[in-house]
Specification:
The protein has about 110 residues and is mainly beta. About 0% of the residues lie in helices and about 50% in strands. Strand 4 and strand 5 form a beta hairpin.
Amino acid sequence: VQLVESGGGLVQPGGSLRLSCAVSGIIFSRYGMDWYRQAPGKQRELVGRSTSAGGTTYVDAVKGRFTISRDNARNTVYLQMNNLKPEDTAIYYCYIARGWGQGIQVTVSS
């Protein structure tokens, strides 16, 4: 499986970003997937999860602000992040079928 992430960057507090994770090498529609993040000096943590059917769950820290969606026709999963806070600053990773994306930096700062 190969995963390629895009869409990170620098945003001010309260702003929005959308991350994308393009997947190849598997039958994408059969798999659930996860988004993780790792802040400086901290362990990697789960942000949210999408089942193969599109159901989603989120950790409390992002609930109501982040949304995971998937486009099975494009083999792509998205992480829409709204009302970003400085504590959301981290490297974000997608994970599916035991494969990891390369990680993408999200920095929330004024």
